[in-house]
Design brief:
With about 350 residues, the chain is α/β, with parallel strands linked by helices. Helix content is about 50%, strand content about 15%. The chain has helices at about 10-20, 20-45, 70-75, 75-80, 90-95, 100-110, 130-150, 170-200, 235-250, 255-280, 295-305, 320-330, 345-350; strands spanning about 50-60, 110-115, 120-125, 155-160, 165, 215-220, 285, 305-315, 335-340.
C-alpha cells in the first residue's frame, strides 16, 4: 500500500479517452440503431404487437333545441362514454360475429369531438386489420341507426371512412432511438474509462512512481538518445533504424509547437545524460520489451558498466513487467541510474505538456 494514496492522473486519463472518443460516438450510433431496431421488431415485425387503425368522420344533425342542452349533453367526453353504453354497443354487437366481445369493441373504440360539436371522429385500433374494419363498420351502422331512432337527432351521416392502416411507427420510435443512443453512449464511455483506469501501461513519468524510485531521465525521439551512453546491445543497424525513424517522425511534424516541444524534451534528455555520465561514468542503455527476454550477455554488460539506463517503449510496457525487470537487475547486482521512455506519441505529448 506504499503508493495507495497517490491518486489518479486524470489529465492523462482524459487525453487518452479523447483520443478514442470516436469509439464512444460510434457506440452511441450503434445504440440508437439497436434501439430503433428493437422497437420496430417488437411493434411491427411481431404480429402479436402490430396495431391497425381506421377512422370515420360522422356528421351529427341535431334536432332544433332552443335551450342548448342537447349540444351540452353530447360533448366529446360524453360521446366516448356513450360508445360503451347499451344505447350504442348493443346495436354495434348485433352487426358483428359471435367471436367479438363487448370488452374488445369498447377497448378498441375512441370517440372524439375535435372542433365542431356536429363532427364526431371515431377511431378503431386493434391488432388485426380485418377486425378493425368490421368493428368500424358495425359502429358506424349503429350510429346511423341511433340517429334514426333518437329524437335529439334529425339524422347521423357517415361522411368519411378510412381503410385500416398499419401503425408502423409513432413518437415512441424517436424515444427508442434516444434511449438506445444514451445507453450506448454511457455504456461505452464507462467501459473505456474503466479500461483506462485498469490500464497500468507506462505513458508518463508519473506512472513510474508506483513501481520504482529510479529517476526519469527523459523522452527519446531520435538516435541521439544514446549520445554519451555506451550500449553493446545496440548495434549500428539499430542506430541507423532509429535515425530513419527520427527522419520519418520529423516529416510528420507539421506544427511548430510540436517541433519546439520535441526540441525541448530532447535538450532535457541530453542534459540529463551528461549529468548522469559525469556522476556514474560509463553507462549502458538497455531496452526492455515484453517480447524479448534479457540475455546473459546483456546482464554481464550491465554489471560491467558503471550504471544502467533502462529504455522502455511508450504505452507498451506495464508497471508489473517493469517491476519484475528491475528486480532482475537488482538480483544481478546491476546499478540502475534511470529510466528513459522512447517513441512517445506526439499528439499526446502536446496535450499533456501544453505549457512546455
Amino acid at each position: 500500500m506504499r503508493y495507495g494514496n497517490e491518486g489518479m492522473d486524470l489529465k492523462k486519463l482524459c487525453i487518452l479517452l479523447l483520443q478514442k472518443f470516436w469509439i464512444v460516438v460510434l457506440a452511441a450510433v450503434i445504440g440508437a440503431g439497436l434501439g430503433a431496431g428493437i422497437y420496430l421488431i417488437h411493434n411491427v415485425a411481431l404480429s402479436s404487437n402490430r396495431e391497425y387503425q381506421a377512422q370515420s368522420k360522422v356528421y351529427l344533425d341535431f334536432a332544433p333545441d332552443e335551450t342548448g342542452e342537447v349540444y351540452q349533453h353530447y360533448n366529446g367526453y360524453t360521446w366516448n362514454d356513450l360508445m360503451s353504453t347499451n344505447l350504442i354497443i348493443d346495436t354495434t354487437m348485433s352487426y358483428l360475429p359471435e367471436d367479438y366481445t363487448t370488452e374488445e369493441v369498447s377497448g378498441a373504440t375512441l370517440a372524439e369531438i375535435l372542433s365542431d360539436v356536429r363532427l364526431l371522429t371515431i377511431t378503431i385500433t386493434t391488432s388485426d386489420a380485418e377486425r378493425t374494419a368490421k368493428i368500424l363498420d358495425a359502429t358506424d351502422r349503429a350510429l346511423v341507426e341511433m340517429g334514426q331512432r333518437e329524437q335529439e337527432f334529425i339524422g347521423i351521416e357517415i361522411i368519411k371512412e378510412t381503410e385500416p392502416k398499419l401503425l408502423v411507427a409513432d413518437s415512441r420510435l424517436v424515444q427508442a432511438v434516444l434511449v438506445g443512443l444514451v445507453i450506448g453512449l454511457v455504456f461505452m464511455f464507462i467501459a473505456m474509462a474503466l479500461g483506462y483506469v485498469l490500464d497500468d501501461r507506462i505513458y508518463v513519468p508519473g506512472d513510474l512512481k508506483c513501481v520504482t524510485e529510479l529517476p526519469f531521465v527523459g523522452f527519446s525521439f531520435m538516435q541521439t538518445v544514446y549520445n554519451g551512453v555506451h550500449s553493446d546491445n545496440i548495434g549500428d543497424s539499430d542506430n541507423q533504424k532509429e535515425a530513419d525513424n527520427w527522419k520519418e517522425t520529423d516529416n510528420r511534424i507539421d506544427s511548430d509547437r510540436k517541433r519546439k516541444l520535441i526540441q525541448k524534451l530532447q535538450a532535457d534528455l541530453e542534459k540529463n545524460n551528461v549529468y548522469l555520465t559525469n556522476k556514474f561514468g560509463e553507462l549502458a542503455a538497455i531496452e526492455i520489451s515484453t517480447k524479448n527476454d534479457i540475455t546473459e550477455q546483456e546482464f554481464t554488460n550491465a554489471r560491467n558498466a558503471n550504471g544502467v539506463l533502462l529504455v522502455i517503449p511508450y504505452g507498451k510496457l506495464d508497471r508489473s513487467s517493469l517491476a519484475y525487470r528491475i528486480e532482475q537487475f537488482s538480483l544481478q547486482e546491476c546499478k540502475l541510474a534511470g529510466i528513459i521512455i522512447k517513441d512517445a506519441d506526439m499528439r499526446f505529448m502536446k496535450w499533456y505538456y501544453n505549457h512546455l
